[in-house]
Specification:
AG1 protein
Length: 147
């Protein structure tokens, strides 16, 4: 867009009833009172972790059934001299690789959420200790003022 065109659009927007707004969040959207803050409750994180764990567990079971059945079919077809047997065997190998990738991702999500929860708990404990130490120091200074 050329500069002249931009200026013309701005001018037209200023003259119209609707105003041009750039990089601005409208004040009253009827939503949450916290604007711009990412908030994730423990309940939300627990639901994500549970979904990842459930997917890991269920997919392990069902993908195993599919793999075993496909391997048997591929072996039977190859044994009878059908070229399709080799192709199905290739598909089964790719399926196994992709299954491992998905399961690794699910485990990573679950493990990361558990690590994050533990790390935040450790951070909270550290902060509480630091703040209480400051309060003790303040009390010491307050006591000295009286003397």
């Amino acid at each position: 867009m050329a500069w002249d065109e931009w200026e013309q659009l701005k001018s037209e927007a200023q003259q119209s009833k609707t105003k041009l707004q750039l990089n601005q969040y409208l004040a009253d959207q009827g939503g949450s009172s916290t604007q711009g803050d990412l908030v994730a409750s423990q309940k939300d994180l627990a639901a994500v972790g549970k979904a990842a764990h459930d997917l890991f567990t269920d997919f392990t079971t069902y993908s195993g059934h599919a793999r075993v059945a496909s391997e048997a079919a591929a072996g039977g077809l190859k044994g009878e001299g059908f070229a399709l047997g080799g192709a199905l065997e290739h598909v089964t190998e790719r399926w196994s690789q992709q299954t491992k990738t998905l399961l690794d991702a699910c485990a990573h999500i679950s493990n990361h959420l558990r690590f994050t929860k533990n790390q935040h708990a450790a951070d909270e404990s550290y902060i509480a200790g630091a703040v209480s130490s400051i309060a003790l120091l303040d009390e010491g200074f307050d006591d000295r003022k009286g003397h």
